Amino acid sequence: MRLLLVEDSARLAALLGEAVREAGWRLDAVGTLAEAEAAIAATDFDLILLDLGLPDGDGLDLLRAIRRAADATPVLILTARGTVEERIAGLDAGADDYLVKPFHHREFLARCRAMLRRSPMTLQPVLVAGRLAYDPATALLTAGEETIALPPRERALCEALMRDIGRLVPRRRLETTLSDYDSELTANALDLAVSRLRRRLEGIGSGVEIATVRGLGYLMRECASDGATEGPT
């Protein structure tokens, strides 16, 4: 799951970023309407977290523009504007939920989970490959009865490969998946993440392997019952 936070407070953005990443989701954070518009144009997000009082305008204007473009991405408003009239204005502008600052991070994460469950991406069935099962709504990866704890970057990689089980996933798409909006991966970061994920999956008897298609990308495929596989290595 990839979230966009539009928040001009660096301290709050850092706190929310830590909570979001610990929950297993990826977060891109911007501080202005202009940056938010650029991010939304470049990336498909599963949830937008929107402050209203921004340096270059009102977040409600961005929200209305999102809805005029027929963009149904869930939007959670995070703001200090707490009167009944202000909450009504936010919901009428197209917000799916409204949370007034200050708020408890556990309530914030619970509201995010509720909205992500309604996201088009999470309405899909749980992803299954070999003994692995991944639930996009909870970011929970299991192998049989065992829960698999992966760092955020490896979890995002595993999800991307599971979504295209048995098919080549180009390097560039994986690099985009693993990168943050405002930074690029180092030259070997993808290969390093793949190597680490391979070792973890082999160690738990996941029933899948990650094959390299040299110069093109990677694919995840199920292992044969005798452990043999065919095709790219």
TrEMBL record:
The modification 4-aspartylphosphate is found at residue 51. Residues 124-222 bind DNA. Residues 124-222 form the OmpR/PhoB-type domain. GO terms for cellular component: cytosol; protein-DNA complex. PROSITE patterns: OMPR_PHOB (PS51755), RESPONSE_REGULATORY (PS50110). The keyword DNA-binding applies. Residues 2-116 form the Response regulatory domain. Keywords: DNA-binding, Phosphoprotein. The keyword DNA-binding applies. It comes from the Bacteria. InterPro entries: CheY-like_superfamily, OmpR/PhoB-type_DNA-bd, Sig_transdc_resp-reg_C-effctor, Sig_transdc_resp-reg_receiver, WalR-like, WH-like_DNA-bd_sf. SMART domains: REC (SM00448), Trans_reg_C (SM00862). One of its GO terms (molecular function) is transcription cis-regulatory region binding. GO terms for biological process: regulation of DNA-templated transcription. This is DNA-binding response regulator.
